[in-house]
Amino acid sequence: MNENLPPCPECSGVYAYEMGALLVCPECGHEWPASGEAAAEGEPAGAPVIKDAVGNVLADGDTVTVVKTLKVKGSPTGIKAGTKVRNIRLVNGVDGHDIDCKVDGFGPMQLKSSVVKKV
């Protein structure tokens, strides 16, 4: 237990650790900004707003649903429309892929915000 880190806001776990600009709870997997100042420093003043396929603003930790079936290299089946993806992270990815996430049955991958809808 680190004496300087706050407990998890979700489960009140005391074993939080730092991962970049975030704090992570190993007990429940919840991630949150280390502090208000650290979160503000991590995003530039003119940071682009990332919106889903219907225009809702996305944020880290949101749950989204895939709106159309996606092909996945190396997989005989793709990600079907309606698949829920939890705890997304917004990133400045390659080729327009601005969501970093884990998809059940496929593992970690990046998605485009234009193919998801906020739940």
UniProtKB/TrEMBL annotation:
Question: What InterPro entries does UniProt report for this protein, alphabetically?
Answer: YjdM, YjdM_C, YjdM_N
Q: Which residues form the Protein YjdM C-terminal domain?
A: 50-119
**Boundaries of each Protein YjdM N-terminal domain copy?**
5-33
Taxonomically, the superkingdom here is Bacteria
Q: Which family does it belong to?
A: Belongs to the YjdM family.
This chain's protein is named Phosphonoacetate hydrolase
